[in-house]
Structure formats: structure tokens, C-alpha cells
Amino acid sequence: xxxxxxxxxxxxxxxxxxxxxxxxxxxxxxxxxxxxxxxxxxxxxxxxxxxxxxxxxxxxxxxxxxxxxxxxxxxxxxxxxxxxxxxxxxxxxxxxxxxxxxxxxxxxxxxxxxxxxxxxxxxxxxxxxxxxxxxxxxxxxxxxxxxxxxxxxxxxxxxxxxxxxxxxxxxxxxxxxxxxxxxxxxxxxxxxxxxxxxxxxxxxxxxxxxxxxxxxxxxxxxxxxxxxxxxxxxxxxxxxxxxxxxxxxxxxxxxxxxxxxxxxxxxxxxxxxxxxxxxxxxxxxxxxxxxxxxxxxxxxxxxxxxxxxxxxxxxxxxxxxxxxxxxxxxxxxxxxxxxxxxxxxxxxxxxxxxxxxxx
Amino acid sequence: xxxxxxxxxxxxxxxxxxxxxxxxxxxxxxxxxxxxxxxxxxxxxxxxxxxxxxxxxxxxxxxxxxxxxxxxxxxxxxxxxxxxxxxxxxxxxxxxxxxxxxxxxxxxxxxxxxxxxxxxxxxxxxxxxxxxxxxxxxxxxxxxxxxxxxxxxxxxxxxxxxxxxxxxxxxxxxxxxxxxxxxxxxxxxxxxxxxxxxxxxxxxxxxxxxxxxxxxxxxxxxxxxxxxxxxxxxxxxxxxxxxxxxxxxxxxxxxxxxxxxxxxxxxxxxxxxxxxxxxxxxxxxxxxxxxxxxxxxxxxxxxxxx
Lengths: 359, 306
Prior knowledge:
- The complex is a heterodimer.
- Chain A is mainly α.
- Chain A contains 14 helices and 2 strands.
- By secondary structure, chain B is mainly α.
- Chain B has a two-stranded antiparallel ribbon with strand order 1-2.
- The interface between A and B is large, with 44 and 45 residues.
């Protein structure tokens, strides 16, 4: 007779947490391998391609760092929101709103302002755009108890439609030969790159700074403490007189604003014009959810998990080209890894003992 | 003018059908206390499976059957993490949506843009369809339409009038007390998640083999999320879901009515999403005690805990 007994585990060490995550990822990769096998693709070759495409070459690694910028920015902001159990699924829309605000700034002011004023102004505009789009679900939740998962998702769709409306309508560029999209940004509004790469360094530095600062905010400040109480024990929070509206507003200004900054990086650092929503962001807002989760909601760790998932995005592109797999492959990889991570959490929180009793 | 009103309402019924199916499923699921945010992904899976099976076998009903089977099968993932592993239901549901959208996109890649030659034929009911106006709107629809209404009524009957229904509802309200009555709480929750998954997949099947008769990635276009909002709007009552879903079907159709007036189509396509926020706002002014939300919705239940 084999018997399982499940008991709560109270001593969760950092090492155990790391090992559980690592094993979950390995289990996830194994399952992804099975999916590849099912699709008639050699799983070892496909997985090798994914990681050699992103981490195996200097070129690939530069691309990985480029894609890690929005993931770290958004992911670190999401750790703060998720700590307060505010399920912000709307980072994609907040990113697009940031991109829209930045595009407006550069297209209508860029010709008249020098770069050293233009670039900070664009970041400010992008942050404001993302933050405004993030405040809406916060107010809807606290004042009208509207579920934030639904409201943030609806706002994603609304923002994507709004952006499309702009680029096929009033903002349509005269240099696009009738195709949707704005004109190219003026030179003063284009972010500098690290030579030989597509890494826009201003945003790159910003993303690292944000991860570090947010870590201090969450663990060392009164606001961070209040945000955690709101998430972990709202009743105690209410009793202690925490202002839920204020706390939620601030954390969504930060979370939405950082997604907005990611939007600035994409349009001003990579594309240099505002195009279709799917071109502006390749689902960064959703991938960042897993980045935050893998980082165990610790902003500093999003530096690692962000680069890891950026690698999967880049490697995903590589297998799409070399093995002819569709773009949706990345969705499968993300979904499986996320499921494995939450399954792993079970083994972290519970101690399972196996006893084999002799009959 | 009369023709336009009749055809608009007729199309509102068609557009409301997948919403009703998915909402009914989510109501049953949430009544047992499990929040399933995987609707959008399971719907996409249902759509792609129904399309592929119908195309290769030429039998749309076989397509529907396979879609429902696959929808239930993939929902087991959410049931397992949410019920057996007591994981966070928001994150688990999101993972299911990502997975469903991913797998459907990959499976459907070779079928993008291919027209479906055999489709689900409309079912014109004798005599009833001859009623002026109403006949055309209500009784000359696809089988999915009748199925959706019958299933919603059946779900209402199940939840409100049967013993199992009481067990489902009390599981969502107070699993601890329910368990002490000797009712298998986990098994009931599993059952409800599977029912919800089957309904979502059925909604997807309607989209691909009856509504648009084609497959493109992302064709569910947020309908799964709207269904989750409609669950709240319907106050977790499948009977009310009927009205809610067709009201939203009308919102989906109204954009095509307004297009000739020169309003930007991209502006109009925001309508369903804006309307979703508006109805949620509307519902929030109601007394929360009369909302009927299952008390333990989304709360993990661990057996034998305090």
C-alpha cells in the first residue's frame, strides 16, 4: 500500500523556491516537447533551436535583450499589481496607449524640439498614457466593484480599435502610400541604439532601474507594505485604515505607466512609426504576466525571468522560420509553462510524504 | 424598413447564440465556485476542432461532437489545478486561454481562409416559421440557436429545480458545510468545469461552422471574455442569460447598421467592449446582496481545513 499524506509547508526557503521553479520549467519544456512530437517535429531539435536561436549566438542574445526591455518594464509593474491581488490583464492596452501618447508627442512636437527635450517628453507622455488607461479599471474596481480582469481586457480591445482608428484615419501618414500607419517619427524622437544591435539603451537602463526601484518600493516602503496587505489580508487592511482607492490608484499608475514606457520603447526605439496594434506589441502585455509569475512577484527577479521569456519569443521566431511553425507556437509554450509553474506552487506550499506500508 | 428590422433582429439572434452558450456554461461553472477564465481559449479550440472535423468528414454534427469532447478534455487542466491543486483560479484560467488560443492557432494554420463546403444547415420549423416577422426571426435559425435556448433552460432547471442543482449551488456557497453533508464537493466542481468547457467549445463550433463558415486565428474576438461579463450581468441565472446574450447579439449587429452612416468601422467595433463595461457599471448600482454571486467564487477549497 502506497499512501500519500499532504501537509502544509511553512518553511519555504529561497533555495527550495528556486528549485521548484526550475523543476516546473523543466517539466514544462518536457510537455512542450511532447506537443512538438505530436505535431511531427523532432522535439530535441525544436527545443535546441529555440534556445540556440535566443541565447546561442551573439546576434540572438542581442535580440533577446531587445525583447526583454518591454517584458521587464511591464513584468515588474505587474508584480506590484499582482501583490495587491489586482489582476491587471490590460498591460497590452496600457502599452498601446503609451505608444499612442508618445506618437502624438513626436509627430506634433518633434519637428520643433531638440532630442534632449523630445525624448524625456515622449517618455513622460507614454507613462501618462499608460497610467491613465490603468487608472480606469482601478476606479471601476474600487468604486463600482467591477471585476478588473474583465475591465482590463475590454480596455485592451477598445485601445487596439482606437489605435487602428487613428492610423487608418486622422493620423494616416502621407508617406505610407495608402497603407495604414503614421509617418516616420522625426529624428529628434528616435531613441539611440547600442551600436550593432536594436537595444534602445534609454529604455534598457530604465527597465533595470524600474525593477530595482520597485523592489525597494515593495519591500521597504509603507506604500509597498500597504499594497501587500490589500492583497493578502484585505480585512486587516480595512481595519488598519488603509485607503484602498488611493493604494490601488497608485499601483495602477505605476503598473500602467511602466507598460506605457514599454510602448514608447517599441515605437520610438524599434518601429519609428505607429502601425497596427499587433505590429506595435507582439503580445508583451500577456507574456509579462508569466514573467511576473515566474519571478514569484519579486520585481528584481523579473530581470531574469524577463530575459528568459524574451529568449523564448526570439527562439520562437527562429523555429517559426526554420521549421515552418505558426506564430501561435509561442502561445502554447507560454500557456504550458504557466500551467507548470502554478502546478509547481502546489509542491512548494504543501509537503507530500509518501509512505509505503508493508501489508 | 420592416425588412431591415426583421433582418437585424434575425442577425442579433445569430450573434447572440455563441454568447448564450458560453454564458450558460460559465454560469454552471461559477455556481460551483470555480471561476473559469479559460472560456476564450476553449471557445477557440471548439471553433478550430469543429471546423477541421466538419471539413474532413463532411459531417457538421460530428464536428460539434468532437469540439465538445475536446473542450471538455482541455478544461480538465483548469479543473485539476483549480480544484485538486487549489491553485489561483485567475492565473490558471488565463493559462488555459493562452494554451487554447495557441493550440487552435497552430492546428488551424493550414485551414486559414479555406471555405467550408458543408455547413450546418438552418432548421426552419414548420408552421412556426410562417408567423409574420417573428417566424423569420425566431424559427428559421441554425440548430445552434434552438440548442442554445434549450440548454440554457435545461441549465436553469438543473440549477434551480434538481437535487444536483442544490448540491452545485451549495458547493459554491459553502463547500465546507456541503462536504459535511456527505456530498463529493470536488467531484461536483469537476463536473461543472467540464460542463462549462463543453458549452464554451459548442459556442466556438457555432462560430466556425455556422456563423462565419471559415476559420481565422483570433476569430473568437473576445466573445469568451464578454460571456464572463454576461455571467455577472445575468446574475448567475441561466434564464436571465438568454435575454443578456441576445441583447449583446444586438450590440454586435448594430455596428453593421451604423456603418453606412459614415462612422469609422474601427470606432464601431469598440461597441461590444464598451457596452460590456457599461452593463457592468449598471449592475454595480444594484444592491450587492441581490447580485446572487456565489459566496466562495474563486476561493480555493482545501478539504479538511478548519
